[in-house]
């Protein structure tokens, strides 16, 4: 895996919210979304990525193990 830097954009699958770009309100299988890295743990244990959602943003943390999967 290449070295990750703050500001990098990564394709990640969030676990705490659904991609609800649908008109019927149903939750569909989660798919990768583009998130921007906003924090990296000093020892590289996890990163926090920010996802644009509607007019706001949601942040979620990922371990390096989750990102390799």
Explain this structure to me?
The chain is 7% helix and 41% strand. The model has no long low-confidence stretch (mean pLDDT 83). The chain has 69 residues and is mostly beta strands. A hairpin with a 5-residue loop joins strand 2 and strand 3.
Outline type: globular
Low-confidence stretches: none
Helical segment count: 1
How many beta-strand elements? 4
Beta content: 35-45%
Spatial gap, N to C terminus: 11 Å
Read across the widest sheet, the strand sequence of neighbours is 1-2-3-4
Question: Structural class of the helices, strands and pairings?
Answer: mainly beta
Q: Give Rg in angstroms.
A: 13 Å
Helix percent band: under 10%
Mean pLDDT: 83
* Largest β-sheet summary: 4 strands, antiparallel
H-E order: EEEEH
């Amino acid at each position: 895996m290449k070295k990750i830097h703050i500001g990098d954009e990564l394709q990640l699958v969030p676990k705490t919210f659904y991609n609800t770009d649908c008109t019927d309100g149903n939750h569909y299988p989660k798919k990768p979304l583009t998130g921007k890295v906003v924090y990296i743990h000093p020892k590289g244990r996890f990163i926090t990525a920010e996802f644009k959602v509607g007019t706001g943003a949601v942040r979620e943390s990922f371990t390096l193990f989750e990102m390799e999967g």
